[in-house]
Amino acid sequence: MNTRALIDTAVINSTTTGSKRLADRLFAWWFNRLVYAQIWEDPVADLDALQLEPGANIVTISSGGCNALAYLAAEPAAVHAVDLNGAHLAMLEMKRAALQHLPGYDDVRDFLAAADQPQNAERYRRHIAPHLSAGAREYWDAGAPLRARHTMFTRHAYRHGLLGRFIGLSHLLVRLVGGNLGKLAQARTPDEQKLLFERHVAPVFRHPLVRMLANRPAALYSLGIPPSQFDALKRDADQAGMTLPELFCERMRHLACDFPLQENCFAAQAFARRYDPAQPAQLPMYLQPRHYEVLRRNAGRVHAHHMTLTGFLRSQPAGSMDAYLFLDAQDWMDAAQLTELWQEVTRTAAAGARVVFRSGGSESPLERLLPPDLLARWQTDPEANRALYASDRSAIYGGMHLYTRRAGHAPG
Prior knowledge:
alpha/beta
């Protein structure tokens, strides 16, 4: 199946009726392109939750590819990166080939972290392009000879894709209504972060234009938020006695104030719209120099799959997987889709296997949608999940959840 067909299959389900039908189809059309040039889930929090032993078999959603590569630091046997969106898998291939085939760390840093140097076009042609699959090569060479797509790495690559453009548009909108997201990038201490947030960002969420946009699902499609996830956000706001703009303000506060900016790659892109290569701790985990050698050595263990998660797991032997990372994909699913997925997760899970995922709302969808006998094969700890959520530096979701295979249940 092609990207459009796969996304349609995921988004348009049994809940797609009435007015939601048009919204789901619009979202599926909008999502059919590069959305995430960088992933927006924190791999440090993932690895803390998973506690992987060397030799683990991992399945993850690819998204922008950053996390699939970061997991190589745990010395897995294989990382299977699955995605509905072929553009995301092309991005993963680009990053993996850069790690493997650029001459050294400085070249990787200039290509993938700075991502704005004119020399990167030649680095791509000489060192990366010859090692891409035919499909990824076609994707990155599209637009030549006028402006091939790979030249985005000479023009601040992470400002591209739907999310990158959304962040740029958000900066303009915030300036229009009297705020300034870029001011946060000037903070040097946690106290300065809080002061600048209250002065330049928090008031924006009280502006009538921002309040109106925050209540329009289509305005958030570039964040990768489908209509079903928007409904979960509304439930969270209602339960907390907040409006949606107030909820968004609190999540932005978590990103802006709860972690040092000098150690947060997500805040760097949100507020400065770039990484600072001179601050290694601010780079994504897969680009930090201390991980370079092990990731370069293990890069061949990442395998890309253009298909659904359920379809991939159906092709795997029973008891063969140790870790699953689903990002927020389950927020897209209805009960039937979620049940099909977890039947395959349960069949393929090795003893002690762990599943990590995020949710747009604070609550996990599993207790509400999975059959009780299937859910009974897994255990979770809500208090530990809240601690995991608090540690996730991307800070854009409502919940982070860890489920562990119960002892005594054989695969199947």
